[in-house]
Amino acid sequence: MLKIKDLQIGFSTPAGIAPALKGVSLEIGRGETLAIVGESGSGKSVTALAITRLLPTPPAIYQGGSITFEGRDLLTASDAELRKVRGGKIAYIFQEPSTSLNPVYSIRSQMAEMIQLHRPDVTDINAEIIRWLDAVGIVDPATRLNDYPHQLSGGMQQRVMIAMALSARPDLLIADEPTTALDVTIQKQILEKLRELQRDLNMAVMLITHNFAIIRGLARNVAVMYRGEIVEYGETEQVLSNPQHSYTKALIACIPRLGDHRHRLPTIESNP
Amino acid sequence: MVIVFFALIAGGSLLLSATGHDWPCDPNLTNLELKLLPPSPQHWLGTDNLGRDVLSRMMHGASISLTVGLIAVAVSLGIGMVVGAIAGYFGGIIDQILMRAVDALLCFPTFFLILTVVALLGPSLLNIVIVIGLVSWTGTARLVRSEFLTLRETEYVKGARVLGQNAWHIITRHILPNAAAPILVTAVLGIPDAILQEAGLSFLGFGVQPPQATWGNIIADGKTYLLDAWWLNLFPGLAILIASLSFYLAGDALREAAESRS
Amino acid sequence: MISFIIRRLALSVVLLFIISIISFFIVTLTPGSPYPWGELNPKISAEVKANFRKKFHLDRPLHEQYALIMRDLFTGNLRSIKDDRPVISRILERLPATVALNLTAIVISLSFGTLLGVYAARYNGHWQDALGSFIAFLFIALPGFWITYMVVIALVKGFGVPILGTHSYGIEFPNSFASGLDTLWHLLLPATILALGGIASQSRYLRATMIESLREDYIRTARSKGLSEEIVLYKHALRNSIRPIIAGIGMVLPALIGGAVVIETIFAYPGMGRLGYEAVLERDYPTLVALNFVVAALVLLGNLISDLLSAAVDPRVRLE
Predict the structure, then answer these.
(1) Which of B100, B107, B135, B138 to mutate to test the interface with C (most CBs of C within 10 A)?
(2) What angle do CA A152, A154, A159 make, to 5 degrees?
(3) CA–CA separation, C274 vs C101, rounded Å?
(4) What does each C-alpha distance from C124 to A149, A252, B240, C215 come to in angstroms?
(5) How far is A36 from A251, CA to CA, in rounded Å?
(6) What average pLDDT does the segment A147-176 reach?
(7) Are residues A87 and C226, on separate chains, in Cβ contact within 8 Å?
(8) Contact A172/A203 with Cβ under 8 angstroms?
(9) Which chains are adjacent to chain B, needing at least 3 Cβ pairs under 8 Å?
(10) Which whole number is the average pLDDT over C95-113?
């Protein structure tokens, strides 16, 4: 369904062009979950945003490669085609739900916008919104319709974002560090909800995280990124039990486990 | 680049008038035989209704406009900085009182006020400059105050206080240098405002009086001959426009430079 | 909300009080003869002068003068030195024209200022941005009276179009609609010139706030939803950026009324700006005091309205 081949992206800076992605290739099939793991700066968010050309192109430059979605090359698609894909076929949820929702519009209005744009078949929009809010686990959704984002807790905001993204029934959900900004207790709930919804909707998910610990049980395949390249790619169970690349090994070794007696957590040489 | 060009023009005319030299001829020399002539090789910008050369009058007018601009801004800067510094540094009730006073002053239509005072006091260069300065300080005051409010809480100011340095010392040595950039920008941006106010005053007859030429009163003189002697209106107005524009552009460039540094 | 309005009105009363004192002092303490006919006119006897002084309370000490003027102002008895008519009626007859002019100017400056500001922010970093900024600075730097004359020369001489006053002189209109259009036409030109400065400053301010808003995460979300760039700009970004502009509208009023003086003079438009100018020329200080008061009151009202409007636009605003 989605195939990225040899994607190269650079960022223009006063000191020249800094390479961000040095030839990234990956694939996601229908209903599959792919996790992309790496530390900050490894290029995972850039990959995600690049898929629907959401990177602001003054600094970013698409230098090469292709992104094929359902047979269409997204890098050369027209603006109109791109806009149909965005939201309707490929939806996003981001890391900071508190700033990712527009503060001056109500929940209802922001969700309605999504539904009206991509699901013209829906006649009762309010009912649809309530359905989705309920599906993500928001208590008493009807009372929340006219709330503004700042009136909701972080966990609830993220649930709203998920509801909004899914309400267009996309084929692929790209989740960029969806739980990093949330409490640990909420993280688990949200991830489980995500897994449940994915199953119900038979939706593909690209999960981006720096935390290896959460992908188990969630993602079938994993790609490990380091400094703009994919250094390891395969089935999660395989990679976790038998990592090939030194970076992967180090990452896995960093996962704190109950019962550990180490005094210092192992570190990895950081990204320049 | 554009800025440099305009700045040169501004500086050039100031220099020219400051040297007291009459160029190309005496601006007050009247010659009724030559009245209301359109631009020609002898009179590049034409002559006015009394036969005076417009170009010379405009060169002299330049010195007035620029003087007003600079000194009025200096006055408003002075008042604004003092008021803003006191309000921002001491805070509390002093701040509240001063800010209410600023609010009250802002409710006045400034041009109106200037007009009133100048009309009643008499239109001399000194009066005009002082009055314009007196009504324009509010912007500087607010800016200075907000800079002070933020800078007051910085570590080095707190450190200075702990060391027991007195208020004056702290204000001049620590806070002012850091607030200097935005203050300078406001100052430069205020110059064209003063120039425009002065032009408006001259136009209404309340600026510096004839026979001294100002850009505003050349236009005012030309008002009666409007439909026939278009050059009496076009050139001085263009001069005002270019002068103001160059200061605005310069100020904006300064502001961008200051912002990119901080 | 109600308590906010009440507190604001109370504050306004205090401010008006201060303003009235300031304007009173400015007007009465500046040197110059108060007599409309000149200090040394030999035709006026000392008795007439004495009567004049008595009538306008000039023989009382300053604080009494102030109190008396205030009393007269509020009872509608304050009379103009010029023609002995109640000042209030002189002001009121000019008020509708002034309000029409200023309101139109505000509408023009808001709409074009917004368009220009969004345009510049959208193309930030490209030549369109520099163009937008240049236009903005051009507008501010334009001396109102100069451009007015240039336009007058062009329209009147070039096209023979009447533009002075509020109605075309000597032309009969077949119905009130046409006559209304004529009034609108006469209003449009001065209002536009008046609005130029506002367009410029609002567009610059909006550009700055829009550029900041466009960096926010929710814009990325909006784009990821597949919305067109126009919707992203005008629906999502604009509403977050426009609050300072709307809050600042109240403060634009003094500048408008002041700037209107020159414009009203040239266009022969019967507004309060010209009334003030004439009052200054005639040293009609009761009119001046009353005018300053009315203007200040309008400004405070304008501030209140703009604060309420900005709360309506942005739900995060807390009225304190």
Answers:
(1) B107
(2) 85
(3) 13
(4) 29, 44, 29, 12
(5) 13
(6) 90
(7) yes
(8) yes
(9) C
(10) 85
What are C206-257's pLDDT values in tens digits? 888 898 888 889 999 999 998 988 888 898 988 888 888 887 777 777 777 7
Q: Name the residue in chain A with its Cα closest to that of C237.
A: A102
The Cα–Cα gap between A266 and A251 comes to 9
Nearest by Cα to B100 from B75, B117, B79, B83: B83
CA distances (Å), origin B216, targets A114, B203, B246, C293: 58, 5, 18, 30
Chains C and B make contact, 3+ CB pairs within 8 Å: yes
Tokens describing residue C129: 């941005």
| Banded pLDDT at C97 (limits 50, 70, 90) | confident
Question: What's the whole-model pTM score?
Answer: 0.78
Q: Which of helix, strand or coil describes residue A207?
A: strand
Quote the CA–CA distance of B28 and B52 in Å, as a whole number.
Answer: 6
The reply to whether residue C141 touches residue B223, judged by beta carbons under 8 angstroms, is: no
- The ipTM of this complex is 0.85
Residue B25, by phi and psi: left (phi above 0), alpha (psi -120 to 50) or beta?
A: beta
Spatial separation of the C-alpha atoms in residues B226 and B213, rounded to whole Å: 18
Is the link from the previous residue into B24 a cis peptide, with omega within 30 of 0? Answer: yes
Closest CA to B221 of A121, A193, C145: C145
Q: Which tokens sit at A86?
A: 């965005």
Pairing between β-strand A229-235 and β-strand A33-37 as defined by DSSP bridges: unpaired
The pLDDT value given to residue A22: 87
CA C116 → CA C111, C196, C199, C219, distances in Å?
Answer: 9, 12, 8, 20
Contact A266, A247 (CB under 8 A): no
> Distances from the Cα of A109 to the Cαs of A96, A148, C235, in angstroms?
20, 10, 12
Record the tokens describing residue A150, joined without a space: 């700042």
Residues 6+ apart with CB under 8 A from C153: B226, B227, B230, B233
* pLDDT > 90: percent of chain A: 14
Contact C295 B109 (CB under 8 A): yes
Cβ within 8 Å, pair C258-B111: yes
Q: What Rg do the C-alpha atoms of chain A give, in angstroms? A: 19
> Which tokens hold the place of B86?
């006191």
Q: Looking at residue A42, what DSSP letter applies?
A: S
| Cα C197 to Cα C203: distance, rounded to the nearest angstrom | 10
Tokens of B227: 């439909």
pLDDT tier for residue A111 given thresholds of 50, 70 and 90:
very high
Number of CB pairs < 8 Å for A and C?
Answer: 68
Q: Which token pair is A68? A: 């094929």
**Residues C80 and C87: beta-carbon distance below 8 Å:** yes
- Contact residues for C195 (Cβ-Cβ < 8 A; gap 6+): C104, C105, C106, C108, C109, C112
Three-state DSSP state, B1: coil
